[in-house]
Task: inverse folding
């Protein structure tokens, strides 16, 4: 059974990819970094599909505790 990703995990992955792209833009472009970025981008596309489906079907898991301020903020959006 596939792991069901939360919206929080999705945003964390998106942030990691963004940070790696900035690092690459600044000239830190080794083969290891290229492989890591490619792997994360593939995972991002896969998770993106699951998150989109969950949102459309009102089945989204935000990944935050109910009493967390962040959950309240995300629910308002």
Result:
């Amino acid at each position: 059974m596939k792991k069901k990703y939360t919206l929080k995990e999705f945003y964390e992955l998106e942030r990691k990819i963004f940070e790696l792209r900035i690092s690459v833009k600044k000239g830190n472009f080794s083969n290891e970094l290229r492989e890591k970025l490619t792997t994360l981008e593939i995972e991002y596309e896969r998770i993106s599909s699951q998150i989109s489906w969950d949102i459309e079907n009102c089945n989204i898991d935000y990944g935050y505790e109910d009493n967390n301020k962040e959950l309240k903020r995300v629910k308002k959006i």
